[in-house]
Amino acid sequence: MSVLELARPEIRAMQPYSSARMEASGGKIMLNANESAWAPPGDNALGCNRYPDPQPQALLQALAALYGVRAGQILVGRGSDEAIDLLVRAFCRAGQDAIAIQPPTFGMYAVCAHVQNAAVVEVPLAADFTLDVDGVLAAVTPAVKLVFVCTPNNPTGQLVSQQQVERLAQALAGRALLVVDEAYIEFADATSMAGLIDRYDNLAVLRTLSKAWALAGARIGSLLANEEVISLLRRIMAPYPLPRPCVALALEAMLPAGQAEALAHVTLVRADRERMARALAALPGVREVLPSQANFLAVRFEDAGAVYQRLLGAGIVVRDVRRYPQLGDALRITIGTEAENERVLAVLKSPAMDGRGFADGSALGEHA
Predict the structure, then answer these.
(1) What positions does the domain Aminotransferase class I/classII large occupy (predicted)?
(2) Contact 329/323 with Cβ under 8 angstroms?
């Protein structure tokens, strides 16, 4: 059974939009897309008066080398969010099909499902935030077409093992597409599941340049999957999803110098993550620091609301995750620069602060 049989039949049968850039077969005088003949001010040879390639070959080749897959196994879009949305729209019929998730986890899986009017089947993580594989498999009904697994998980930071992923992929063959979200994998003591794609045609992997590669503002995310799935999603994606300046930034980041810089920053984050975990755990009012393989720590407090406001009053914004299941006392703190991390610790160690960020009448120095 082809994995495409799980997709919506009307999507498989539809005639995709053919953009002017897709139809162009070469030439130097481009008069087929109603573009301006003049580049805008400050263009710096980017050619932003012309529509970009829908899937730039140079970027696909660079990402294929980075992720260890073939260029035909990559779909590049506006962050992982676009790939999640495309998957739900391609595989879930409104009012009939469903996705499966394991809360607490990344919220966009459920948001995209709700937009499509697809049901959301929830299988909570265990008390220690590990994946309940048996529970997931027991909950997968014929309506479930997509199973999302986040590793390291957001917002808790724990890993899902390759053994668990393979067990899910094997059991879901012919039943559902398993989507493994690896937005934070560069920070983890683990290898990507991308190497399993040729073994399981119902496995897809989400990757992004937003985190370890410092390109959150460029919005470059990838879906890695077998060629049939990639081809299907290209039918329904926007004609020109990738702005030329964003592609240029991504290609520069993946040059040897950019890769070395990214690796150096990941190394710093991993080291300071462990230091921050120990320091936070030793503070009064901290109940627990959850083990994390990502670039953040989920921290349980005796009064998370008061801590959030205290940090905010000092100009420090962290993520309030108390609305998530099993995290009613937690905040998620991203690992920043050493100075930023020290500022967090200083604020949490200091006496109660007023709204201006002062304690005992004296200012706590600004972070770098």
Answers:
(1) 47-347
(2) no
